[in-house]
Amino acid sequence: MMRYIPNIARIEYNKTRCKGCKRCIEVCPHAVFAFKHGKAVLADRDACMECGACMRNCAFGAIQVETGVGCAAALIGSYLPGRKGKICC
Amino acid sequence: MPDSCSQNKAPNATKECCCGPIHHRPSQYRTIHGLTTVETSAGSVPVVPTRLTAGDYWGRFLVRLGINRMNYAIRPGLYACGNPKSDSPVIVTANYKLTFDILRKELEGISAWILVLDSKGVNVWCAAGKGTFGTEELIQRIKATNLKRVSNTKEIILPQLGATGIAAPSVQKSTSLRVIYGPVEAKDIPRFLENKKRCGMEMRKVRFPLLSRLEISLFEFTSALKWFLIAASAMLIATSFHDNSFNLEAGWGISKLFHLTLALSLSTGTFLFALLLPWLPARPFALKGFWLGASVITIFLVFFPGLNDSVHSLIAISATILAITMSFALAFTGSSTFTSLSGVRKETRRFLPIISLLFLTGLVFWILTFSNAGGKV
């Protein structure tokens, strides 16, 4: 399994809000969440690619993810003067 | 959100970079061959064949090469496959024709309604990231097609990779339809349907297999090729000027090493990097690119020691191969399935200055190499 830079994904999970609906597990493409004792647990934070699907589908606001266009080209473009706010795709 | 869009990211497809600005629209809709129709209480619904034609495969081939990929869409709306009834499953997809074709060819023998969203001709994952394969479009399309008159379903099946753009709770509130996320890959849909619309955990994971990586690298290669040819031509012309005369043959003799370096760098940065990605050391892609570039330089020097004849050219070749390979490697983060924006930001900040310095070094030392060589002709 290919892994990326650890300890960097901006994902926050508030277990107290979890109602055990399993939506986050259903939508995550990298099995970041697992199900234990009736609630979701953050099982593999370093596998998170910040797509935000879990946050978008949690009806209880238990998850926060910092999403955004992440292609290096767009990032570099945003550092250049005059191109702030323009995303490539 | 995925690091970048992947125009070919239909289930079982690959990622590329950049699928155009958010407001881009295809200029025409493609024809689906072999359509029939079925009459419903919401009017005629086109029934699509589940066998693809040679024309479909040809279109797919062209798009994989990057030809006209921004203009390969079908009309959004409601379609059918097989002989669906009012209780048949409803499967939602994007209007990128490659996505649609990959989906329908897996539905052989299955009767279902297919709701095609207007994702502006972009595949599911990319469009979901951009917001065009989104909650609003889904709700609007359900209403516009009168889906509820055609089907009495209480649930709709969305591709899992659409989840980045679809808020299931909002869809349920607006339409009373429950969103069920199907497998990542279309090929798992038949098994998913048989299994009471439940997915095994393996069907929910996104992988990044060799074929996908190579498809991306092919697109990277063809996109970059024209710039490399321009750089090579510019160098050829520049080195052909000598003693107030213009001698192309002499120019070629001088700049051969540069062209070889460019060709090597391009191939290494695209194909070789994609091939070896799982085994390259270090987590940041730019660093993986560094190790790959360094290895290629070493092999090059060991097996072809005679080719480079000065310290100047040695530095020029090394700096260029490293700079180009690391650049492609960093860019590949945008086409990969497991990189995070935060990680890409970190490694861009860390390695972009180094890459820039390498390019500058390369440029300076090529000039030094060729100024010296000019005297040898």
Strand adjacency order, main sheet of chain A: 1-4
- The number of distinct helices of chain A, counting runs of at least 4 residues, comes to 3
User: Cα distance, first to last residue of chain A?
Assistant: 28 Å
Q: Largest beta sheet of chain A, briefly?
A: 2 strands, antiparallel
Task: For the largest sheet of chain B, list the strands in their spatial order.
Answer: 3-5-4
Structural class of chain A: alpha+beta
Coarse shape of chain B: elongated
Find the biggest chain interface.
A-B, 41 and 54 residues
Structural class of chain B: mainly alpha
Number of helices of chain B: 12
Average pLDDT rating of chain B: 90
H-E order of chain B: EEHEEHEHHHEHEHHEEHHHH
Write down the overall mean pLDDT of chain A.
89
Number of strands of chain B: 9
Distance between the termini of chain B: 56 Å
Strand percentage of chain B: 5-15%
Helix content of chain B: 40-55%
Q: How much β-strand is present in the residues of chain A?
A: 15-25%
Helix content of chain A: 10-25%
Q: Uncertain regions of chain A: pLDDT < 50 for 5+ in a row?
A: 85-89
Topology:
The complex is a heterodimer of chains A (89) and B (377).
Chain A: E1 11-13, H1 23-27, E2 33-36, E3 39-42, H2 53-57, E4 63-65, H3 72-79
Antiparallel strand pairs in A: 1-4, 2-3
Chain B: E1 36-40, E2 43-47, H1 54-64, E3 77-81, E4 90-94, H2 97-104, E5 112-117, H3 124-130, H4 135-144, H5 147-150, E6 155-158, H6 168-175, E7 178-181, H7 189-194, H8 210-240, E8 241-242, E9 245-246, H9 248-276, H10 285-303, H11 311-332, H12 341-374
Helix pairs in contact in B: 4-6, 8-9, 9-10, 9-11, 10-11, 11-12
Could you explain how this protein is built, in words?
The complex is a heterodimer of chains A (89) and B (377). Chain A is α+β, with helices and mostly antiparallel strands and 89 residues long. Chain A is built from 3 helices and 4 strands; from the N terminus they run βαββαβα. Chain A has helices spanning 23-27, 53-57, 72-79, and strands at residues 11-13, 33-36, 39-42, 63-65. A two-stranded antiparallel sheet of chain A has the order 1-4. A two-stranded antiparallel ribbon of chain A has the order 2-3. The longest helix of chain A has 8 residues, at 72-79. Mean pLDDT of chain A is 89; it is low at 85-89. In chain B, the strands form 4 sheets. Chain B has a 3-stranded mixed beta sheet with strand order 3-5-4, sandwiched between helices.
